[in-house]
Amino acid sequence: MSSLTEKDRPIVQLLLNTGTCPRCILRFCCVGSQMLYRHPHKDLMKDLQEFLKNSQEAEDTVCLDVADPPCKRIRLDHREEGAEDLNHNGAILQLPSADDGNAAMESSAGKVCNVCLGILQDFCEADFVKKVCQKVNSADYQFTSFVFSVSLPPQLSVRERAAWLGVKQQMRNLGLPLAKDDIVQLKEAYKWIIHPQLSEELGVPADGKSLFEVSVVFSHPETDEECHFLAIACPDCFKPAKNKQSVFTRMAVIKALEKIKEEDFLKHFPCPPSSPKNLCDALEIQCNNGAVFVAGRYNKYSRNLPQTPWIIDGERKLESSVEELISEHLMAEFKADSFNFSSSGREDVDVRTLGNGRPFAIELVNPRRVHFTAEEMKRLQQAINDSSDKIQVRDLQLVTRSAIGRMKEGEEEKTKTYSALIWTDKAIQREDIAFLDDIKELKLDQKTPLRVLHRRPLAVRCRLIHTMKSEYIDEHHFRLHLKTQAGTYIKEFVHGDFGRTKPNIGSLLNRTADILELDVESVDVDWPPTLAD
Fold first, then answer.
1. Across the chain, which distance is largest between two alpha carbons, in Å?
2. Where in the cell is it found (predicted)?
3. What's the per-residue H, E or C state across 219-238?
């Protein structure tokens, strides 16, 4: 049972007299009934007026017999002893009479709340709910539920503290006990009111775990500077951050309010807070869908195609890439804002990827469309394959974020199979290279190759060549099939990279060797799952 009782009368009278809206009054009286907050604003005003008229009866209640789950709270009264019982002008606060309270209630009915700045007033009405839903529907998202988030002006925390201190001082003046209960968070009360309305209008339930987010950002320019005194009192709480436009973030303000002494707060801010002239502004109404992840395996058949866009000093070197040939189709179908491409390793621009292909995953950021059948994914795969003869994709499927970790494991832990066409400066015979077939688990020390030193740290990496199989072609050419530890630099293993990879094919054959062509024949990562044709 959540109820207003006789002990709440002074709080109700004081807050009504100072311009606080009915819903904020319920919050300060620690009322946890969700249904009560959903009553129309005018009805709540009448209920509070009726409550004050009947307040002489000890435990009168007002339409509050509603069972609800426990609500989150914020601790405002965290000190045993407060400041002196003075307002910002040094005058003793006086509790209004019932008649004064009724007059104040009538005069403040159309005013902006001095605590929530109108958020629990106009922004709970059907007109604003319809405005939000129009924005959602026009954005053309697919969703089966939603989560609603609110960004509040940081000065609301300052005003809430001021209102609480005003109540606290008044109760002490009257010699009445002050329970150290916690008020209901403004955000939570707002969601209690708005969730059912949004659900009804959108036709889907509110769900805290939903990937589809509807967010509203509120601002109140009229009172923006009300936080500034905290930066003088608690400078350590306000430090510039690269991604923040202002140091006065909500968390910084809350931290400062926890730190500042009550007497210092009262010197700088009126208690209770004054009434503003204007409502909050709904600065932004935004929609965002959680990322969708698509995985598959790709084959690359071109020796003139990089895996990702090849741009040096702002200049594009090649017209396309594996990443772009795949992602442009996914971006169009999922209607996403952007994407992030990742794969199990990467091949050089002049290296082909054959066999069963290389595993890849693409994160599609803020997609409008998220539901695809297996048949639709198959058609999307075919569209990618029909668009270019440079790549082919297989096993295209939707996956979870956590599943991508299995792909990344393969970069260092799995094996890869290669085919290298090798040239030697001195003539060779079959018997000169036959011994390579007998070498097993050859250990290499590979210093970071010169060609990647600009983007990778200098280090010596130990790698294994598990097996080799030679295929003689002529006096200066042979093909070598290798099964290696993932992360092995094959080109450097062939030519030695000026001695930075030891041993190497050149040192093993005792002659100069170089690589002419390289193909990846398999990436032994059992992911993503193979799909039936």
1. 112
2. Cytoplasm; Mitochondrion; Nucleus
3. ECHHHHHHHHHHHHHCHHHC
Tell me whether residue 105 is in a domain.
no
361 contact partners, CB below 8 Å, separation of at least 6: 293, 294, 295, 341, 342, 343, 399, 404, 407
- In degrees, rounded to 5, the angle at the alpha carbon of residue 517 between the alpha carbons of residues 515 and 522 is 110
Mean pLDDT score across all residues of the chain: 88
Q: Answer whether residue 22 is part of any domain.
A: yes
Looking at the fold, whether 375 and 481 belong to one and the same domain comes out as: no
Count of domains forming the chain: 3
Same domain, 371 and 505: no
Domain that holds residue 405: 291-410
Q: Catalytic annotation on 519? A: no
The one-letter code for the residue type at 409 is: E
Asked whether residue 83 carries a pLDDT value surpassing 50, the answer given is no
Rounded CA gap, 26 and 183, in Å? 9
Least confident of 41-45, 73-77, 244-248, 453-457: 73-77
CB 112 within 8 A of CB 118: yes
Q: Are residues 351 and 420 in the same domain?
A: no
Does this model's pTM top 0.70? yes
Domain end among 288, 316, 332 = 288
Calculate the CA 533 to chain-centre distance.
Answer: 36
Identify the active-site residue in 264, 281, 337, 348. 348
Q: Burial-class residue 310 by CB neighbours within 10 Å (0-12, 13-18, 19+).
A: middle
387, 410, 433 - which closes a domain: 410
Q: Average pLDDT, stretch 96-119? A: 68
User: 344 lies in a domain?
Assistant: yes
